[in-house]
């Protein structure tokens, strides 16, 4: 950073300008250079994210300047997404611990959780499964919004489950939220749930090859799912009905692979959900619909 920078505002401005000049990609918690720079500076100074704008005029010590510069350099030179530098990410209004063992939370499913999946849930769910939980963000946010539900977080990665367990503890939910190590449903035996919600790996080979370098810091097992991005989802559609209660629902994120999914199952009535805060590629199916279309899932 140039030596003439004095205040917090100087560093935020200079960071944002440099991030833009260097063509960094934003998509892991912020969507622009200013917010990204602000987040890193506030973290470095241990200031809250909603700090008053008067802090912009505060001068920085030599040590504080050096700390911010170190963070900026890792963001610019190593292209590490900001949440891996700060160790935290926000989802559905809650803070989660994150590190490179888990995907950085960003699913539009947050909006559905905040709306308690209305109007699609017939009754309040007593049992919820967050399949492919990663940091646990989806299941833990569900536990906050459904205080009477028991929530299971499952993942094939024991590394991810270790982070999810940290977050259960952080959110003081050990009495209602637990983890299960499982390859899809294999570790869940014959358990059934009122709500299964999942943001599984769904990136197709073409998108994976073109992803900005920031994404290469995330675990590949959390992103890739075969040539058309649907390896996981095909198997999920076949098995999910066996794990839902009678009036249960399945909510699945498939992102850009939604087109391939529609083509693969032209007769399945996927309900594509809409989002006020942006996002696409999330469908809902009821237990009944999964049962009705079972033959199509078997023959795919
Ligand atoms: C896209 S990440 C989602 C993480 C988290 N739910 C979120 O929204 O931030 C997908 C997760 O699926 C897990 N996963 C991949 N294959 C799996 C499988 N066969 N069974 C269970 N989990 C799997 C990965 O370890 C990763 O944590």
Provide a descriptive summary of the structure in words:
This protein has helices spanning 8-21, 33-44, 62-77, 82-86, 109-114, 137-145, 158-170, 205-210, 231-239, 258-264, 287-292, 294-299; strands spanning 88-91, 94-97, 127-131, 150-155, 177-181, 193-198, 244-253, 271-272, 282-286. It is α/β, with parallel strands linked by helices and 300 residues long. It has 12 helices and 9 strands. A 7-stranded mixed sheet has the order 5-4-3-6-7-9-8. A two-stranded antiparallel ribbon has the order 1-2. α1 packs across α2 and α2 packs across α3. The chain has 2 domains: 8-86, no CATH class; 93-299, Rossmann fold (3-Layer(aba) Sandwich). Helix content is 36%, strand content 16%. Bound molecules: S-adenosylmethionine. S-adenosylmethionine is lined by residues 102-103, 105, 107, 132-135, 137-138, 155-157, 160, 182-184, 199-201, 221-222.
Concise overview:
The protein is of the alpha/beta class. It folds into 2 domains: 8-86, no CATH class; 93-299, Vaccinia Virus protein VP39 (Rossmann fold, 3-Layer(aba) Sandwich). The protein has helices spanning 8-21, 33-44, 62-77, 82-86, 109-114, 137-145, 158-170, 205-210, 231-239, 258-264, 287-292, 294-299; strands spanning 88-91, 94-97, 127-131, 150-155, 177-181, 193-198, 244-253, 271-272, 282-286.
Roughly what percent helix? Answer: 25-40%
Name the beta content range. Answer: 15-25%
| Major beta-sheet overview | 7 strands, mixed
Unique bound compounds: S-adenosylmethionine
How confident is the prediction overall: mean pLDDT? 96
Terminal CA distance reads: 55 Å
| Global Rg | 21 Å
State the strand order across the main sheet. Answer: 5-4-3-6-7-9-8
């Amino acid at each position: 950073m140039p030596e003439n920078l004095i205040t917090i505002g100087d560093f935020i401005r200079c960071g944002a300008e440099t991030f833009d000049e260097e063509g960094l990609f934003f998509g892991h918690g912020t969507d622009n250079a200013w917010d990204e720079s602000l987040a890193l500076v506030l973290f470095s100074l241990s200031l809250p994210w909603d700090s008053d704008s008067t802090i912009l005029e505060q001068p920085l010590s030599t040590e504080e300047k050096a700390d911010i510069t170190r963070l900026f350099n890792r963001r610019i030179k190593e292209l590490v997404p900001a949440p891996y530098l700060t160790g935290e990410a926000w989802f559905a209004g809650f803070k989660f611990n994150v590190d490179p063992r888990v995907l950085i939370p960003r699913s539009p499913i947050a909006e559905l959780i905040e709306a308690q999946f209305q109007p699609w849930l017939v009754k309040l769910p007593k049992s919820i499964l967050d399949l492919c939980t990663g940091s646990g963000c989806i299941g833990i946010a569900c536990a906050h919004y459904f205080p009477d539900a028991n929530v299971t977080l499952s993942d094939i990665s024991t590394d991810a489950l270790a982070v999810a367990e940290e977050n259960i503890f952080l959110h003081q939910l050990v009495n209602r939220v637990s983890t299960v190590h499982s390859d899809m449903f294999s570790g869940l035996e014959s358990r059934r749930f009122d709500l299964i919600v999942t943001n599984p790996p769904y990136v197709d080979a073409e998108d994976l090859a073109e992803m900005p370098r920031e994404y290469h810091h995330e675990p590949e097992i959390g992103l890739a799912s075969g040539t058309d991005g649907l390896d996981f989802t095909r198997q999920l559609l076949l098995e999910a009905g066996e794990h839902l209660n009678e009036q249960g629902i399945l909510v699945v994120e498939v992102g850009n692979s939604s087109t391939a999914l529609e083509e693969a199952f032209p007769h399945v009535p996927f309900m594509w959900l809409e989002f006020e805060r942006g996002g696409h590629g999330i469908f809902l199916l009821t237990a009944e619909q999964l049962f009705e279309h079972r033959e199509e899932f078997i023959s795919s």
